[in-house]
Amino acid sequence: MTAPTVRIDDLRESDAPRCAVLEALLFPGDDPWSENAFREEVRMGHLYRAAREGDLLVGYAGLAFVAGPPQAEAEVHTIGVDPAHQGRGIGRVLLRELLAVADAERATVFLEVRTDNDAARGLYESEGFVVVGVRKNYYRPSGADAHTMRRDPR
């Protein structure tokens, strides 16, 4: 799992520049999110968590509720971990933070993941997600396809 020096807390608007840098590293061919996109997500009150090593933001994840009870639904908007810090379980910890909140609301959770991103898909499957569809040409401008995945509440 994560090194003891990594802590998880709320993503802040002031983290937006670092998030945009990580997005550009992680998703270079697929219209990475801008600083403003991250600021707006935080301002809208969606659940965004941050992984920090010291003062350095090394990962982030976001979830939005899109339907309320009695059939709550949520979407994982993004998860990203600095390539220099991948393979330490940080993404899994961030995902579990989101899922704990969704489960407390008994929400079904959806997400999209590139069909060629085996590592991410493996993570999601190990946390209970299943592929329920394919979205052709979902990512722009690359035109990459995405799997739509779903996880029922626990």
UniProtKB/TrEMBL annotation:
Catalytic activity: N-terminal L-alanyl-[ribosomal protein bS18] + acetyl-CoA = N-terminal N(alpha)-acetyl-L-alanyl-[ribosomal protein bS18] + CoA + H(+)
Domain of life of the native organism: Bacteria
InterPro entries with a match to the protein in the record: AcTrfase_RimI/Ard1, GNAT_dom, YpeA/RimI_acetyltransf
GO CC annotation: ribosome
Keywords for the protein's UniProt record, in alphabetical order: Acyltransferase, Cytoplasm, Ribonucleoprotein, Ribosomal protein, Transferase
This enzyme's EC code(s): 2.3.1.266
UniProt-annotated location(s): Cytoplasm
UniProt xrefs under Pfam families: Acetyltransf_1
TM helices/strands, residue ranges: none
Keyword set includes Transferase: yes
Signal peptide: none
First-listed, main subcellular location of the protein, grouped into a coarse class: cytoplasm
Domain N-acetyltransferase: start-end pairs: 6-154
Function according to Swiss-Prot or TrEMBL: Acetylates the N-terminal alanine of ribosomal protein bS18.
Family: Belongs to the acetyltransferase family. RimI subfamily.
NCBIfam families reported for this sequence: rimI
PANTHER family attached to this UniProt entry: ACETYLTRANSFERASE, ACETYLTRANSFERASE YPEA
Protein name: [Ribosomal protein bS18]-alanine N-acetyltransferase
Annotated organism of origin: Pseudonocardia oceani
Gene name, Swiss-Prot/TrEMBL: rimI
